[in-house]
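#structure-requests
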Amino acid sequence: MYNLKYTVPFMDIDGNNYTIQILEEGGSGSPVELTGGNPSFTVDVNDEDFLYTPTRFSGATLKVVGSDYLQTLLSTDYQKFKVNLIKGSTIIWTGFITPEMYSQDYDNSLFELDIECISALSTLEYIDFKSEDVTISILDLIKKCITESKGDYSGIYIPNVYTEPLSDLTISCGNFIDEDEKPENLKTCLEEVCKFLNWTVFEYNGNVYFVDVDYIKAGK
């Protein structure tokens, strides 16, 4: 369970109010309000030109004004500190602080700190596929990936293009374990499913979308 550790309120150039939440897994105590830098939060989306890229995830930079106490945010765990960007009451971006987070000026007691983050689905690269079953359905594999990402998503959307339900399409779990019995990471598993279905998965406005480019191109 995640406990709210820090909040960073800020306003964009259009006058919209946002709040950045930093939550700690297994943490406790009351949240502390921090002062955001300029800009307080920027998102960098993978905009690769290749149309059929199976995954288009994002990273972000959180900029805050603080002191050495912010070193408590340093962790070797990619899912230790969750970061949610909230507009109004809606989460529009969810991810985690990366272990390689620090960029700061040590010459001053108070400094502006750049904290690097990655989207929740990006953390699947550091989580191995595990299953005690011989087979797994495509739908269950998608659910496993989204659940293991620990992102606070509002909704999941998939194309309605198959007459056969995805819950009835099964894959051998052995496909995700190599000849040395080493499992693939879940990001690779999700990419392979998207390649097979000709889908692209991305996060937008707090939701996960799986899109079929050819289906859209056909006007559907």
